[in-house]
Amino acid sequence: MIQTARLADLFVEAADALVAELDLVAFLQDLTDAAAEVSGAGAVGLVLADRRGLLRFMAASNDSGRALELYQLQAEEGPCLDCYRTRRPVVNADLATADRQWPRFAPRAQALGFASVHAFPLRLGDDALGALNLFGTTDTRFDPDEVRIVQALADVATLAILHDRRVARSELLTEQLQGALNDRVTVEQARGALAEREGIDVGAAFTRLRERAAVSGRRVAEEAAEVIAGR
């Protein structure tokens, strides 16, 4: 069930971010957190296509969302891949009856405590840049109006990607997607390094990384590079 009372604040926050100097890695992370809050999903993940058209992990609301996204990519099956390939949402999928559709992914998701899944394409005309995935710990079902709302959240992610450096041509868009994915790899490496260095978990390390970026005035990926360099 979508929490409509929070939606207005969410879209205002998104609009504020899009008219400011955008930190895409941080923005997409915030978007997955907000999608989980608004939808009540147990986990939310977001994947983007690289320059070869292969999906790669970009952001997740928690470790479960990250694990589910990475497993889909490893197994080469799951709602995010179906959604990206068809450019159509996967809605109200019951994991208890999805063994035939996703024989490896569905049991793994159930083992992690999830019962339902929805996936929405990051649409750009007739193409897709990636997918936004919502995983429910119960058999969560969206009605048509709720489907439109969550699709709008996925569309906000697309707008953020297009906004960042104002991408216009397809080859520049491909480079922008690749740049965002490269930034995410840098952030992941820095999270691990910071967690080990300060004796904290990786979730707290990401929060610490964002705090450092806010103080320094750098983007999160730039601050991550500083951490990796030992500064």
TrEMBL record:
<feature type="domain" description="ANTAR">
    <location>
        <begin position="167"/>
        <end position="228"/>
    </location>
</feature>
<dbReference type="Pfam" id="PF03861">
    <property type="entry name" value="ANTAR"/>
</dbReference>
<dbReference type="InterPro" id="IPR012074">
    <property type="entry name" value="GAF_ANTAR"/>
</dbReference>
<dbReference type="Pfam" id="PF13185">
    <property type="entry name" value="GAF_2"/>
</dbReference>
<dbReference type="InterPro" id="IPR005561">
    <property type="entry name" value="ANTAR"/>
</dbReference>
<keyword id="KW-0805">Transcription regulation</keyword>
<dbReference type="InterPro" id="IPR003018">
    <property type="entry name" value="GAF"/>
</dbReference>
<dbReference type="InterPro" id="IPR029016">
    <property type="entry name" value="GAF-like_dom_sf"/>
</dbReference>
<keyword id="KW-0804">Transcription</keyword>
<dbReference type="InterPro" id="IPR036388">
    <property type="entry name" value="WH-like_DNA-bd_sf"/>
</dbReference>
<protein>
    <submittedName>
        <fullName>GAF and ANTAR domain-containing protein</fullName>
    </submittedName>
</protein>
